[in-house]
């Protein structure tokens, strides 16, 4: 009888296990007496596993534990496809009904048309004569209710000199914006170098701090104007009184015309330039300039690169209409300093000027009255006195005037009522009719200066004003008391000196400020889509002063 069931296995494995059991004093074998077991050393035996080798023989090396997955691309999950205009099945009955000839009662139809003919013609004539939808254009684009800043443009070198943006202008294509740098605040800056910069907003990779063109100018540039038909020509008025025309397509020397310093040149800074059509030479243009020396001069192009004086006007206090003469001035102040000018869009000989004395003056380019002699007469062309009417004044100098491109009301032969806006240092906006001295309304817009005002080119009741606080957008259809939207040009209260609407891309408005930046604003659809009766509303505003 086996004392332990595992004894055979113990012998097969080795003596090391048996010796251990026999030497244990607690083992039963240790109690059977000495000599029953003896210690000896035997070699070990290795037993290989047949199960593992047999199992591994059946295994195959694979990259995954599943069978190969087969895939196929298909455009649809269905086995068959068919094109159809609708998702419903065709009805044979419907096709048959459609193909059947429609029965028309022509006799009854003719009788009906004869009965309603007079009524329909009457209503059509009434609609044809209606003005309910005058000026209304259907706009299929998405509506945008916000005003966004698309670009903030600047020239770091000009900003390092603390120069300000004095003027902005769009070229005829509406894709290029130009700005002039100078300084409008106090200081001895007449000899400072300045710049004219341009950016093409349609150019890929536009760098807002790297202009496409930079023109160095030896004197501060006070105003700019792109040519109305040639997109590369820019005219500028300088602090020195000179006029310069640049061709931006020329990289070497862009100056193509200039007045130089002659007896005809302005003796004060030039604050506005305008391109005029040349009636004698269809392919040429003339330049008009205004200055605080009291002169309004018209220049023609010469082949040698000079701008020669063609004709001119002079404003003197003694020749302002008596009923509204400006306050008495000493002889040395006889010239009335002109700060701005705007031509009527309907009478090419009529224009309005703003002057330092606070008045707006209606003038005529066809005036023939000679101007009185100036303290420093000089000049190669005789000057004429153009002033016809002075309007109710502002409480300070007028900085900007703008004639409406929409309103025109013929009252009687030879007289046309046209509206214009004016603004100045008193912070007020005046809306005037050219036939009345008193304003249609006077709005106190700001406690700070107003530097520029412009009518919208597409909305008769919309205009924009630049102030010491920012840009203000007005919609007179909503309110004549306060701006519809006021835009902050910068985080600080930075004065905005100039602004211009884009006549091609009518949702764009550019504004330049004292910090040396130009912001291009995208207007909301509210400011660019004309309502059905806006012209009538504008006429009603104008007629209030006539009643």
Written account of the structure:
By secondary structure, the chain is of the alpha+beta class. It has a domain at 142-163 and 445-546. 14% of the residues lie in helices and 32% in strands. Strand 25 and strand 26 form a beta hairpin. Helix 1 packs across helix 2. The model is unreliable at 1-34 and 410-415 (pLDDT under 50). It holds the Pfam family WD40. This is WDR34 protein. It comes from Origma solitaria. Residues 1-42 are annotated as: Disordered.
What is shown here, in short?
This protein is α+β, with helices and mostly antiparallel strands and 547 residues long.
Fraction in beta strands? 25-35%
Principal-axis shape equals: extended
What count of helical segments does DSSP give? 7
What is the average per-residue confidence, as pLDDT, rounded to a whole number? Answer: 80
Instruction: Estimate the helix proportion, in percent.
Output: 10-25%
Distance between the termini: 143 Å
Largest sheet: 5 strands, mixed
Keywords: Cytoplasm, Repeat, WD repeat
Protein name: WDR34 protein
Pfam family, one: WD40
Organism: Origma solitaria
Structural key phrases:
547 residues, alpha+beta, five-stranded mixed beta sheet, four-stranded antiparallel beta sheet, 7 helices, 32% strand, extended, WDR34 protein, WD40/YVTN_repeat-like_dom_sf, WD40_rpt
